[in-house]
Amino acid sequence: MDPAGGCPHADNAALLARGAVAPVVLPGDVPGMAVLGHDALREFLAHPDVAKGAEHFTALREGRIADGWPLKTFATVRGMTTADGDDHRRLRSLVSKAFTARRVADLRPRIETVAEELLDGLGRAPAEHGGVADLRRHFAMPLPMGVICELLGVDARHHERLHHLSNQVVATDIGPEEALAANRELVDVLGTVADTRAQHPGDDLTSALIAAREEDGDRLGAHELIGTLLLMIVAGHETTLNLITNAVRALCAHRDQLDLVRAGGATWADVVEETLRWDSPVSYFPFRYPTRDLTLDGTVIPKGTPVLAGYSAAGRDPAAHGPDAGRFDITRASGPRHLSLGHGAHYCLGAPLARMEGAIALERLFTRFPGLDLSVPEAELARHASFVGNSVRELPVRPVP
């Protein structure tokens, strides 16, 4: 795997042509596997002999993974993404109350208000920069970050720093010292958030999690609380940030699709779903581990191997989505449901919120700025320095009313 990331689609296509499962070399020469084919990934994500707990990661258990390994947080953070069985159900049940259909629907007016306020700022930003604004910085990032931080009761003064540290966590090209420093600082910031909410509880998820821990000490440990907050911050804004960014890029490159949704031939929700399939916000997500030697699509994945879930590859798998899988088509009716928000017991709890945020963001953006377009060619956009997150670092646009 290239630690510098880049656009994954050409490499994905080459790998898929050879098979649905591929051996890979992770940073630090750690051997792993990637599941790329849609059907194989769907089976793998829900397989009873596949676990998330780090105790199943053979190389880590045997002390062969360095402390500063850039992907170590994905394996060792305490929370839903590294829990199995009863532990996973316990942690998920504590968080799920914040993501019921009713709670998510109640957030709509607030998301719409935040979107409009950010678009006011986006409209003003180009005045100092030759008519160009970074859509990612001024709109796509602060919208989901603001929403998830409101849910968690995180003060606005932490938002920028948490975004920077989240970027460090998902980066795959940083050195051991940088990785350790970023993780330590992120834990410190989240510890400050937890201490503040413990002293001044409110109507937010962090306060509710702390109350659950105090009512029953066995329900949520201190490390699990910080791990849960870390997961919520990173997953709660990075994926939606990439979703909005990638959808805008797709629509600017496919004006016929933008015209179609404006004419009522499709919905903004259709745009969100096709973007999730065609340019998944997450390219390769770490990690799952077979608890026995597992044969998948004719390939043996040895017990204890760290496996990447290849969401961006599965989304364009011709075997599942047809020979035009590489075409962006918001009216696509055939083919299976994409897997970009997961499958099985670890399906993304925040999926309804991410979908709603994406649809609201796109509708408000292109209503306010119908002539919006990229200010540089797509090929010149710098990509994420990660094979985990899939997007670009900046999105310079001309917000034309």
Automatic annotation (TrEMBL):
Superkingdom of the organism of origin: Bacteria
Entry keywords, A to Z: Heme, Iron, Metal-binding, Monooxygenase, Oxidoreductase
CDD domains: CYP107-like
Record bears the keyword Glycoprotein: no
Keyword Heme: yes
Classification via SUPFAM superfamilies: Cytochrome P450
InterPro entries: Cyt_P450, Cyt_P450_B, Cyt_P450_sf
GO molecular function terms noted in the UniProt entry: heme binding; iron ion binding; monooxygenase activity; oxidoreductase activity, acting on paired donors, with incorporation or reduction of molecular oxygen
Annotated family: Belongs to the cytochrome P450 family.
Protein name (Swiss-Prot/TrEMBL): Cytochrome P450
UniProt source species: Streptomyces tirandamycinicus
